[in-house]
Amino acid sequence: MSDHADDLHDQDDPGYRGPAEVAVGDRTVGVDVEISGRFDPLLGRHVWRGRIRKLAEALGGDPSPAPGTTVTITVPGASEPATARISEIDLWGSHMVDGISRPPYPLPTDANGVHSSADANGVDPT
């Protein structure tokens, strides 16, 4: 087993778990999400990934969104929504997403109040 058993979960990034509004096309539904991320030094930005639970049920009679579908996620108290792309549907019917924009939750900050994914000039590359 490697020293990086779970590189997606950064100890400095608590992520978000809880209710969210997810927009698929012109429909917006309330669902539960689980999102976490980390700063990727090779990409020079914060990357995130998550799970949307019971999205197909919340959409009702509409077909379940397929991998490749773009969704918008808004969590309570977020300054702005985030954009993600559905990457797969797991065995339990949850939709796995990969973040395209900055995450829908606040990024961790250092002791100076600068986002941990910001560069030395305080510029957030995400």
Automatic annotation (TrEMBL):
Keywords: Monooxygenase, Oxidoreductase
Oxidoreductase found in the keyword field: yes
Positions of the DUF4873 domain: 15-106
Protein name: Flavin binding monooxygenase
Top-rank taxon, per record: Bacteria
Region entry Disordered, spans: 1-22, 101-126
InterPro entries, A to Z: DUF4873
A Pfam short name: DUF4873
Basic and acidic residues bias locations: 1-15
GO molecular function: monooxygenase activity
